[in-house]
Amino acid sequence: MRKRATLKEFAPGRGYARKDWDAVSDNPELTDKELLQAKPFSEVFPDLAASARRGRGPQKAPTKELVTLRLDRAALAVFRATGPGWQRRIDEAVKKAASKIAG
């Protein structure tokens, strides 16, 4: 027998408003019989499941290389605070510094 999950309460700051939470909170809990009859997502929506698995694929013209890099937290916070595109701005700053070093 499956252990039942406890009912969750609304928690602000998780990407949805109280109004959204209230709109879906009246859904009835599934019974054990209904859970046993449930089909896997990939069986019900095979095309959608296949497209979700695919990911981005290889770059057409690879110009960048994926690396792991440890940065100072304070420096990283400055870039992140500038909003979306902060990774690109770090890349630009590194290229600028590299051109100075290369002379």
Summarize the SSE layout with pairings.
Elements: H1 18-24, H2 32-37, H3 41-44, H4 46-54, H5 73-80, H6 86-102
User: Strand portion, in percent?
Assistant: under 5%
Largest sheet entry: none
In round numbers, the mean pLDDT is 85
Q: Alpha-carbon distance between the termini?
A: 70 Å
Number-wise, the strands total 0
Count of helices?
6
Task: Please tell me what the overall shape is.
Answer: elongated
Q: How much helix is in the residues?
A: 40-55%
Are there runs of 5+ residues with pLDDT below 50, and where?
none
> H/E element string?
HHHHHH
Using only C-alpha atoms, the radius of gyration works out to 23 Å
Oligomer: single chain
Structural class: mainly alpha
Using brief descriptors, characterize the structure shown.
mainly alpha; 6 helices; elongated; 103 residues
